[in-house]
Design goal:
mainly alpha; Tet_transcr_reg_TetR-rel_C_sf; Tetracycline Repressor, domain 2; about 220 residues; about 70% helix; transcription cis-regulatory region binding; 2 domains; TetR/AcrR family transcriptional regulator
Length: about 220
């Protein structure tokens, strides 16, 4: 009879991870470090250890902490960008799509990760201007630009007036993003639940609908 006695498994090197897997682990570790609020841990050494990746390998993946944070912001925004790709033909479609976009936008902007990046940008605006640029140009301004382009298309279909696009963006940004960030900066409120975000979105949607939507005249 063949010998079926169990033999101990051979030890060897752990399986090699692909570049995509390593990058994903690195981004997850950076997100966790930012969301913890302990900015002393937002270093390449600490992030590499948390991801289980050697520092040498980290610098083969990204050239700097700023590049890593830039890719982290881009990963979050990739989901947001997909929301505004469907066509809109009436006011109801516009409000429905806008509600989904604003909800995800607010959740991303008011998440522990984004708030951590915001604080890093504010505190390091003089000695680390690259982080401030990432937060504003690649994060906040990118979200506004997406919304601006989409509302411009809606205006092209007669759902709101072209001259109202910028005013609508300013109203939405003030209600949904700027005011919560002000409260956060002043220490009045440190986090937002999904329910609180949804309430703010409904207020923004209601005011947008009353002030800017051009409904078709009744027959």
């Amino acid at each position: 009879m063949p010998d079926i006695t169990a033999r101990p498994a051979k030890r060897g090197r752990p399986p090699l991870r692909s570049r995509e897997e390593q990058m994903s682990l690195l981004l997850d570790a950076a997100a966790q470090a930012l969301g913890s609020g302990n900015f002393a841990n937002v270093t390449m050494d600490a992030i590499a250890r948390a991801a289980g990746i050697s520092k040498k390998t980290v610098y083969l993946l990204v050239a700097s902490k700023e590049e890593l944070l830039s890719q982290l912001v881009a990963r979050d925004l990739s989901t947001l960008e997909l929301l505004l790709e469907s066509g809109i033909d009436c006011a109801e479609d516009l409000l429905s799509e806008l509600r989904m976009y604003l909800t995800l936008w607010a959740r991303l902007t008011l998440s522990p990760l984004a708030l951590g990046l915001y604080l890093m940008a504010a505190q390091g605006r003089e000695n680390a201007p690259g982080i401030a640029r990432i937060w504003y140009q690649e994060g906040a301004e990118r979200c506004l630009s997406l919304l601006r382009g989409w509302l411009g298309k809606a205006a092209g279909k007669g759902l709101l007036a072209n001259e109202n696009v910028e005013a609508a963006i300013e109203l939405i940004d003030a209600l949904l993003i700027s005011q919560p960030l002000k409260l956060f900066t002043l220490g009045v409120q440190q986090s937002w639940s999904d329910e609180q975000i949804e309430q703010r979105v409904e207020v923004a949607i209601g005011m947008f609908g009353r002030c800017f939507i051009q409904h078709a005249p009744a027959p």
